[in-house]
Write a structure and sequence with these properties.
Number of strands of chain A: 10
Distance between the termini of chain A: 36 Å
Helix content of chain B: 55-70%
Oligomer: heterodimer
Largest sheet of chain A: 8 strands, antiparallel
Structural class of chain A: alpha+beta
Order of helices and strands of chain A: HEHEHHEEEHEEEHHEEHHHHHH
Low-confidence stretches of chain A: 352-359
Order of helices and strands of chain B: EEHHHHHHHH
Strand content of chain B: 5-15%
Strand order of the largest sheet of chain A: 2-3-4-5-1-8-10-9
Shape of chain B: elongated
Shape of chain A: globular
Amino acid sequence: MKLEELAGKCGEWLRGSGPESDIVISSRIRLARNLAEFPFIRKCTDQDRAQIERVLRDRIKEVGEWSSLTYVDVAALDDVDRQFLVERQLISREHSEAEGARAVAIDPHEKFSLMVNEEDHLRIQVMHSGLDLQAAWEQIDHIDDLIERRVTYASHPRWGYLTACPTNVGTGMRVSVMLHLPALVITRQIEKVFRSLHKISLAVRGLYGEGSQAMGDFYQISNQITLGRSEQELIGQVRDVVPVLIDYERRAREFLVKESQKDLHDRVSRAYGILCTAQTISSEETMHLLSSVRMGINLGLIRDLEIPTVNKLFIHTQPAHLQKLRGVELDTADRNIERANYLQRHLRKREGDDDLEKN
Amino acid sequence: MKCQYCEKPATFHITELTGEVPVELHFCEEHARIYLTQSDEPEESNSSLAGVLAQHLKVGQTAEELARLDQRACPICGITFYEFRHAGRLGCPHDYVCFSQELEPLIMNIHGAVEHVGKRPQHGVHGTDHQTRMIRLRREMKEAVEREDYEKASAIRDEIRKLEKQKPHEC
């Protein structure tokens, strides 16, 4: 499988299926693991890093049921390809921007990826569409077992799995659910929600993890604590708060429909209009407008567009995806033009307006 | 000009110089604040760990004690407590053993617990001495190469190879 083949597809996390998928985008779990016989990344020499990469690559390739995985040498990729993997959430931004030997093994369905030499030697992550944490846990638990049979993980009788940063020690697990919360943003309740989540030690991040802006009103809710509670308890903690957030978002949407139907409809229609007709448009503006359109579809204000199409546009209009789909490197200005063209092609085609295609 | 995130007029004009080309951003007051505080988040999360550390170390530690603690180094990977305190990242699994007294209150503060509950590795949980020895030997080999003591370096390399072969095969 080549990266180019991935580009045309949507990726598991934005497939937009599963329960409550109008609000819950995806469920994700990651485990941080380290090999006992090597120092943590900070104290690794170049040779150590290369050796860790080799050991893990060999072990991953031994696993019979993983014969269809694509193993990618991240250090050898150019900037666009690395950015492309970040946009698909197959590697983290930190992993993309790091230096030295590092790699990622990717499941052909993009339901899991294995990052080698990220902040820890191994970061296993599983992604499922919609709210599906239990299945994600069962899968990642199995993946972890398959690797653990072949290597010796760093662990401690009292502190569990040992990680480079003490904030991940214990289970080494981060459970997160990605939510689309545009109405809470519009009604300015989002910060209040975040403050109450912090109080019960849950963290809130943007689309691309730590430090990323909440692009397109996507938010990831995850556990902050990793030690002293079992994996099931940690999953339960995140899972239990999701229905509450869904309820808040739905109530905020109802409020908008009831109190300011015209304003809301206007906002959604304008967003759709700009996306269909803009001649040059930034990634940020695109995400922002697509978010309104996505909510508009879910509220029945836009009827000639489907959620999977919008989900696909969220990912395909990002910088590296645009360039991969076009097959050439583009600077920011050219990307903004290409993005506008891409949006026009995909949104106008939906209207079934053949004349526009011919023009 | 309107804010790029809402309908309000843009009163903050920010030029980002961090990327390959300057990026112009236009925000209303509220979105400017959100943008500016959010882009600082990664540093914040690091400094909050550093903050927790600093808080702990202040309690019951004189400047002299802290200076002495900062100089303590892990015999296996060589990281000093000072380096950990500043980077927020440990150097090797053995740090959890040699700095356990200092880490315990820190871990308590972060997680509200000090005992792991949940999944544990099934294999190779015994004999971590073997692994820490490997980490130490690799570092000693690197140091020997650095001071051009190739005789010592090759002796260490032979020892590492021997240990690698001895490695009990799991599974």
